[in-house]
Design brief:
- The protein is of the alpha+beta class.
- Helix content is 31%, strand content 28%.
- The chain has helices at residues 10-19, 51-60, 73-79, 89-96, 98-107, 121-131, 158-164, 221-234, 268-271, 276-285, 310-314, 344-358, and strands at residues 2-6, 25-30, 42-45, 63-66, 115-118, 135-139, 149-152, 170-174, 180-188, 194-196, 200-205, 208-214, 239-248, 251-258, 297-304, 319-323, 333-341.
- Strands 9, 10, 11, 12, 13, 14, 15, 16 and 17 form a 9-stranded antiparallel β-sheet that branches. A 4-stranded parallel β-sheet has the order 3-2-1-4, sandwiched between helices. It has a 4-stranded antiparallel β-sheet with strand order 5-8-6-7, with helices on both faces.
- Strand 13 and strand 14 (251-258) form a beta hairpin.
Amino acid sequence: MRVGILGGGQLARMLALAGRPLGLDFEFLCPAPDACAAPLGHHRHAGFHDEDALRALAASVDVVTYEFENVPAETVAVLEGRVPVYPPPPALAHAQDRLREKTLFRELDIPTPAFAPVDDLAQLRAAIEDIGLPAVLKTRTEGYDGKGQFVLREAGQAEAAWAAIGEVPAILEAFVDYSRELSILAVRGRDGEIRHYPLSENTHERGILRLSVARPGEALQSRAEELVRRLLERLDYVGVIALELFQVGDALLANEFAPRVHNSGHWTIEGAEISQFENHLRAVLGWPLGSTDPVGFAAMVNFIGHLPPAEAVLALPHTHLHDYGKTPREGRKVGHATVRYPDAATRDRAVSILRERIA
């Protein structure tokens, strides 16, 4: 079978690495000439608005999925009716717009920080009065890895914040004094079966994920599973989804969801019976889902901007290096390492050593 992927970055690459042993072939539609997934399949070097390329992709694959959520709606419209597209387009539409996303959470009784729409400076000032400070102003679309955001701590910053995000439609959210950032990854098949991975505890620096630690046995696991189940069933979802959460005391607040495989689940490649990448492929193809049970105690360390020397990473036992084959650049995710140990304490010591070596 042949899988089409919109995008050709590291997530597309890891999907292909998981699918090739299953006998799958891949096509990547990506405008980047140096798409790092390209060596693992056929690279259709075209833009997402190229209707001829999209029709050719649809005619040559059995299913289409995507590796990022900012796929233009027009792209999906060309593909729909020609080839199955998973996750379903409505999930994509909600994830692309923070206001639609937060409104959906509210409809599903998924707790969120207080929020309000902002379409102009006057509305921003009114939202500040309503929500209070500190608060975070976020563009409604296209923000990722901390981009398109401004933290307001004083009412006098309203004009500067509005200018900083480009004076585009936004939402204002109450600033959350959380104890931990968590994410729950789940996979839902075409037949409605749902499986969940253990919670991941995530550490961000300057808006970019740096560390994810698998937390099997967490007391909050069942609560997180219930929240993501509501989302999966409302959207009639197929594939892997990631729901990002803030822990505040014993409560969970939803931040956002990603309708795709997710950076915080990279530890599943070596740390789960079946990785998020293989399970995503199984789901979109209508195949049986695999076990999401953890294997040992795992964590993932991201490499941002540059890769450390391979020998420095591989000197640690039970450590696995993933080089994405991307040109080094400040702020760019160029690889990661997974550590997997038989106990959590040894895992955590290895993570500390690894982070010191790449500092």
